[in-house]
Amino acid sequence: MAGTDHKKPLLSGGPAIILVEPQLGENIGTAARAMLNCGLGDLRLVKPRDGWPNPKAVAAASGADTVLDAARLYPDLREAVADLRHVYASTARDRYMVKRAVTPRLAAGEIRAHLAVGEPCGVIFGPERTGLVNADITLADTVLSVPMNPGFSSLNLAQAVLIVGYEWFIAREEPPAETLHTGHSRPATKEELVRFFDHFEEALVDSGFIRHPDKRPSLFRNLRNFFQRAYPTEQELRTLHGVVTSFMGPRKGAGDDAA
């Protein structure tokens, strides 16, 4: 196959590439091919429309079988990012959220710095037709946007993955980006952060704070984005759980989350 040299080392690693509800097997395959081109090996699939495994993905991958064979399937995005510390959401549209936004080039340096100190990262991509929904983006710390022709910035799935992967690949020789020092407590994982969201939001409902149910989704999105920007540590979340519990009492069926 053109461009393939089995005598040379096959690079693999990097951030997780998470495809949310991809519609076509062919698009998964071409995205996997783009990943392997750039030395990326962690492919995560959230509810692919045509099921998994998919023979059309294998054909379109043109030999990137190692990525497809290792791909993991998830029922929702929440589970797909649970073990990650830093998540970037790829989107071309303004979502009117208070979110930090970076280019793939800047993100690549940050991701390399995070991974160098053992903090797993991921980049999420939405369905081909609609892109990510706002609820998906609230699970990300940072929005990743590719600067393109403002009048025509649409990319297909494999193109978007390739641009992010290419910037990751060429950033190998760049100096590491600034990292956050968190003292004696590690940065919280997404699973821990979402568990706190559930606890906090449940308390807001039970306390009667939510007086207008129609405003609940936007309020929760804003609060989640606020806590995402704070980059809380695991210990800080334990403290916040304790604060919520002290006001509301223990959650039904929940263990002790106090600090």
Structure keywords:
Alpha/beta knot; 259 residues; Helicase, Ruva Protein, domain 3; globular; single chain; seven-stranded parallel sheet; alpha/beta; 2 domains
Q: How would you sum up this structure, described in words?
A:
With 259 residues, the chain is α/β, with parallel strands linked by helices. It folds into 2 domains: 16-173, Alpha/beta knot, CATH 3.40.1280.10; 190-248, Helicase, Ruva Protein, domain 3 (Orthogonal Bundle), CATH 1.10.8. The chain has helices at residues 25-37, 55-61, 65-69, 77-80, 104-116, 134-137, 157-170, 190-206, 216-230, 234-248; strands at residues 16-20, 43-46, 72-74, 86-90, 100-102, 121-125, 142-144. A 7-stranded parallel sheet has the order 3-2-1-6-4-7-5. Strand 1 (16-20), helix 1 (25-37) and strand 2 form a beta-alpha-beta unit. The longest helix is centred in the C-terminal third of the chain and has 17 residues, at 190-206. The protein is globular. The model has no long low-confidence stretch (mean pLDDT 87).
Sequence-ordered SSE layout with sheet pairings:
Elements: E1 16-20, H1 25-37, E2 43-46, H2 55-61, H3 65-69, E3 72-74, H4 77-80, E4 86-90, E5 100-102, H5 104-116, E6 121-125, H6 134-137, E7 142-144, H7 157-170, H8 190-206, H9 216-230, H10 234-248
Helix pairs in contact: 1-2, 1-7, 5-7, 8-10
In short:
Helix content is 41%, strand content 11%. The protein has 259 residues and is an alpha/beta fold. A 7-stranded parallel sheet has the order 3-2-1-6-4-7-5.
- Count of domains: 2
Q: What is the CATH class of the largest domain?
A: Alpha Beta
What is the percent of helical residues? 40-55%
The biggest sheet amounts to: 7 strands, parallel
As a percent range, the share of strand residues is: 5-15%
CATH H level of the largest domain: which superfamily?
A: SPOUT methyltransferase, trefoil knot domain
Order of helices and strands: EHEHHEHEEHEHEHHHH
The separation of the N and C termini measures 57 Å
Q: In the CATH classification, which architecture of the largest domain applies?
A: 3-Layer(aba) Sandwich
Radius of gyration: 19 Å
Tell me the number of helical segments per DSSP (H or I, 4 or more residues long).
10
Overall strand count = 7
What overall geometry do the principal axes of the alpha carbons give? globular
Q: Give the rounded overall mean pLDDT.
A: 87
Uncertain runs:
none
- Kindly report the CATH topology of the largest domain: Alpha/beta knot
Helix-strand makeup class = alpha/beta
